[in-house]
Write a structure and sequence with these properties.
Helix content is 38%, strand content 16%. The protein is α/β, with parallel strands linked by helices. The protein has a single domain (2-191), classed as Spore Coat Polysaccharide Biosynthesis Protein SpsA, Chain A. Strand 2 (21-22) and strand 3 form a beta hairpin. The protein is globular, with a radius of gyration of 16 Å.
Length: 192
């Protein structure tokens, strides 16, 4: 299995989320460090970032489906699956990732956590490749949604304990990112 870090357009944040700092480290470096703790082959970055194995979008400005299409196209013949995490989920840790990896062994059609959608594991197969090719030519933006992909490909959701749901907290805005920083500090103190 190959690893993929996911990034978005950062429009609500007003700055590139991958470059935001958390504990003197960019969110991108933080995400890659997390992925490097897992038993996976290699980390790729959707988009273009110096110093990382990057996969630029073939069809820019088409959102997550456009980035996913580029990654599937680039990695299809070399890897069997994609493990996808977003850069703006800085409280995610290896425990949640390992739970999803174990679930994928039983549910090889693909898995995600019920609720947050990411992290997400997708098998690199012809069904995924064909689906992406078809929705990219669709004139309706609605058809290019991640939720549509999950439903069409029958990707399975995995339940997670509600008391630990904060690990999936997403930071799309400056206020949400500030909340993540505060939670991160509390977690660090509790774990030290």
């Amino acid at each position: 299995m190959q690893v993929l870090y996911w990034r978005g357009l950062s429009t609500r944040m007003g700055a590139d989320k991958a470059q935001l700092k958390l504990a003197d480290q960019s969110l991108l470096a933080h995400s890659v460090a997390l992925l490097d703790t897992l038993p996976l082959a290699k980390t790729f970055v959707s988009g273009h970032y110096e110093g990382y194995f990057s996969i630029p979008d073939v069809h820019p400005n088409l959102g997550p489906i456009g980035g996913l299409h580029a990654c599937v196209k680039a990695l299809y013949n070399e890897y069997d699956a994609l493990f996808i995490i977003p850069v703006d989920m800085p409280l995610l840790d290896s425990k949640q990732c390992k739970i999803l990896l174990n679930a994928f062994k039983k549910l090889p059609q693909g898995v995600f956590f019920n609720g947050p959608t990411f992290p997400l594991i997708l098998p690199l197969n012809s069904t995924l490749q064909q689906y992406l090719s078809e929705v990219l030519v669709s004139s309706e933006k609605k058809q290019r949604s991640l939720y549509g992909l999950l439903e069409a490909l029958k990707i399975q959701s995995v339940n997670y304990k509600e008391q630990a749901y904060f690990h999936f907290y997403n930071s799309n805005t400056p206020n949400e990112f500030q909340t993540c920083i505060e939670l991160y500090k509390k977690l660090k103190i509790a774990n030290d």
